[in-house]
Amino acid sequence: MALRLLRTARALGLVGRRPFSSIEAAGPKPSITQTVVRHPIYLLDPYLTQADKDEIQSTAGANFAVIGLSGTQYKVTVDDVVVSNLIHGVDIGESLEISEVLLLGSQNETVVGRPYVSGVKVVLEVEEHTKDKKVIIFKKKRRKGYKRTKGFRRDVTLLRVKDILHENEA
After folding, report:
1. Are 121 and 41 in contact (CB under 8 A)?
2. Shortest CA distance to 84 belongs to which of 151, 137, 130?
């Protein structure tokens, strides 16, 4: 019954088979690299004076950024200290520029990258290479007399966020 309905619909032109090339002929979809969400100031507080609104818009720099660093995401602001897994090949005092910025936020707008926000870099400075706090691994099998205790300390790198650079600022 369903086959008969499908044949009838094809005969009437309601359902058709499009060749694969006709789908490609429509053209590729435009790639969206980022989404910008604007935060209107008058919605945040309707009782702000015009001087307050002008002051807020003048300080429209990035307040925070979400960066991807060695497989982990960190929300950072200027002068934050980031405790990351050990980064090989960098010395203390060296600065790193991270361009894998996933999200950039301020009081006026939020920019969400797909996957990264273009034209934004976060400058980090290496402060220290050290070991993390000890984690105790304790294994036991009850009534068997089996107990094992072991400790583990991972190697970490301490990074300080120096600046969040925009394309329009640099």
Report:
1. no
2. 130
pLDDT in tens, 18-50: 444 444 445 565 666 788 877 766 566 667 777
- pLDDT per residue as tens digits for the range 87-97: 999 999 999 99
Could you give the CA distance from residue 70 to residue 90 in angstroms, rounded to a whole number?
A: 14
**Whole-number Å distance between alpha carbons of 35 and 61:** 17
Q: How far is CA 13 from the centre of its chain?
A: 47
What type of residue sits at position 99?
S
C-beta separation of 128 from 86 below 8 A:
no
| Residue 6, phi then psi, degrees to nearest 5 | -65, -40
Yes or no: say if 104 and 33 are a contact pair by the CB < 8 Å rule: no
Indicate if the alpha-carbon torsion angle 88, 94, 99, 100 is positive or negative.
positive
Lookup: tokens for 119: 């034209």
Residue 167 confidence class, pLDDT cut points 50, 70, 90? confident
CA-based R_g, the chain, Å: 27
Give how far Cα 168 sits from Cα of 10, 59, 62, 130, 165, Å.
Answer: 55, 14, 12, 37, 9
* Arithmetic mean of pLDDT over the chain: 81
Model pTM?
Answer: 0.67
